[in-house]
């Protein structure tokens, strides 16, 4: 048995013991309509957990983890939540917002690890997860049967390497995958193994058959722009945020762009300050509830960039140290969370509406809205 397999199993068993054996107390379940956000976080004692937050930023419930979490998939009609381990983790945790049942832990299976993101089918029967085929380095979309305790029932290719965020699009049948183009293994941790030969792409995959519908690749001077996070606007256009893996002196003037099934990759036109101001790194993407505005966080630069999708122009830029998590609030406003425990509500024109801070809490990269 290889050391890689032993390490992955040890990590998984630790998580199973921690989640399965934790005491949750009387507030393990909360009223479904009182939870506004779900996020992973580092807690005050240095441990990791999942936090369910009110609209005012108060902690309503904690679900403990023995390792760091990343993004959250929520099936709104059923109130079912899945939190994925941070890359290259090998566990995911499922629970329901309004029930006292102990969270359920499941894994991607032998020879796979998660990239931290996933998406439910419209009816909630299936969960799709971005994963790595460790032996080949190619990306896969794991397909899980929710009713059978998240039993893995199939896989589709992402037709690229290093898929990060995947999302089921509004048509309910197409999955968009941001293939970062980077090869990773659990043995190497978060080290990228092929920066010189990386091939980032955005692919569109039929969720039922796994057929490739379209593939758009970053080439030439932009081949070092790893495509990671995606969201979709009201017109069905997919917006992506990249992370620059090349020389800092060659950071492109923009690292946010858009594409579609029959629409090639297009980066935003530079408008004054560009990629250098974002430190070459987008950490999360979100779309307003009306579908018009896109938010992109740049945690290394401490900025949130707001884009009007109808004009493809930047309409706002806010400043918040170590900001990363983003979620829609109201019709055209957003919530942003930081690694310093701050949740800020602001407009797409970067006007602050309110701000709350939790002492000694470090929010992780993603924030998801409930309801």
How would you portray this structure in words?
By secondary structure, the protein is mostly beta strands. Helices cover 5% and strands 49% of the residues. It has one helix spanning 3-21, and strands at residues 37-42, 48-53, 59-65, 69-75, 80-85, 92-96, 104-106, 112-120, 126-133, 138-145, 151-161, 163-168, 174-179, 201-206, 212-217, 225-232, 238-244, 256-260, 263-267, 284-287, 293-298, 303-308, 313-319, 323-329, 333-338, 342-347, 352-357, 362-369. The strands form 7 sheets. A 4-stranded antiparallel sheet has the order 3-2-1-28. Strands 4-5-6-7 form a 4-stranded antiparallel sheet, covered by helices on one side. A 4-stranded antiparallel sheet has the order 8-9-10-11, with no helix packed on it. It is globular. Residues 1-29 have low confidence and may be disordered.
